[in-house]
Design goal:
Elements lengths: L2 H15 L44 H4 L5 E6 L1 H5 L3 H8 L2 E4 L5 H4 L9 H12 L3 E8 L10 E2 L2 E2 L2 H18 L6 E6 L11 E2 L2 E2 L2 H6 L3 H12 L4 E6 L5 H16 L6 E4 L2 E3 L5 H13 L3 E10 L13 H21 L4 E6 L18 E2 L2 E2 L1 H15 L1
Parallel strand pairs: 1-2, 1-13, 2-3, 3-6, 6-9, 9-10, 10-12, 11-12, 12-13
Antiparallel strand pairs: 4-5, 7-8, 14-15
Helix pairs in contact: 1-12, 7-9, 10-11, 12-13
The structure holds (3S,4R)-3-hydroxy-2-oxopiperidin-4-yl beta-D-xylopyranoside.
Length: 390
Amino acid sequence: MTWSTRLALFSLISIVSGCAHPPAREAAAPAPTPAAPAPAPAPAEPPRPDRYVPREGPVPSIAQTYDGVFLVGAAVTPGQVLMGSTHEFIARHFNVIVAENEMKPVMLSRREGQYDFNMADQLVDWAVKNEIKVRGHTLVWHQQAAPWMFTKDGKDVSRDVLIARMRAYIHAVVGHFKGRVWAWDVVNEAFAPGEPNVETVGGWRKSDFYRIIGPEFIELAFRFAHEADPDALLFYNDYATEQPAKRALILELVRDLQKKGVPIHGVGHQTHVYLSSPPVEDLEQTIQEVAKLGLRNHVTEMDVSLRTGWGRPVEDAEDDLLFQLQAERYAKFFQMFVRNKDKIDAVLVWGLSDEHSWLRPPDAPLLFSEMQPKPAFWAVIDEGLRAKKK
Ligand code: XIL
């Protein structure tokens, strides 16, 4: 790759992360007075390629590095906590986990009234034994739903029946894990304003829950979860929470639930992001506005794809450079999380190592590859060390 492509890639990152110089506007700018000449702008510098190289000595624990700042976690599978040496790796680096799939309705309940908690229990029991907190993901979602939830004899069930089924499901599942799950993603991805190929009504996703029950499905789900475990923290979770339209819908939902006295404790920001989008500041704004309403924030599913944006191909650059840019991006997000540590209780990544990621190669979005630390890992460690010094 040519040097100019490197610079172009770097400026893409700098612009969105707010560290680039604004474009020159000589024609419009007033001439500087002789007494106060404008300082010459420093040239944009490409990242130092050796910035996030492996360090000597033992690999530090991420959770320990962030001890007293916020919890750090990852999405895991029961196999990873039960087999081989991965459980040591997880217990070393993380103090909160979430099941990537095993606590979703399709995995817990194949038939009405029947539940199989075997795999999920193994994961949760392991976490409890190791004093690791568990995020429960997720109770009400349009994907990976329980296959029996919406129909009977091939037809949609009535509103009343769906409410009764949703209540039964939430009571069974939250009740089963009562006292062992720290926080639940009660509702996942209810909004999709302006999203292509998604049917929406005023920004609300026309999921089966919305279609059959109407928008009240959310408050009902939160009430049912609270009945089943009054001590569990209850979250609304979504992707692209930084987008202004989605931010507005989430804040409106929270205000509405609060007005009605519905228990909601936090907003989960999935944070599946790319090398150059979205802007870190946009997510920061959502986090701050959520906090203004008195709610907590969790970053629930973070990963940083090597693509520059949604649907774009991975740039044709050497892995080394892309991994440095990815590290810069992780650094910017973690700087923001640290700035807002009084509003954020936990930051979780969506998988342990690139080869486990739900995003297939070439996205390579996580902190480890083949379970070895990537530059992104060192970037996260550096920000943690800096946070501790403050
Ligand atoms: C993904 C899992 O990672 C995949 O293994 C599965 O096939 C589909 O679901 N948002 C969410 C997560 O809330 O539950 C999704 O997890 C990723 C996007």
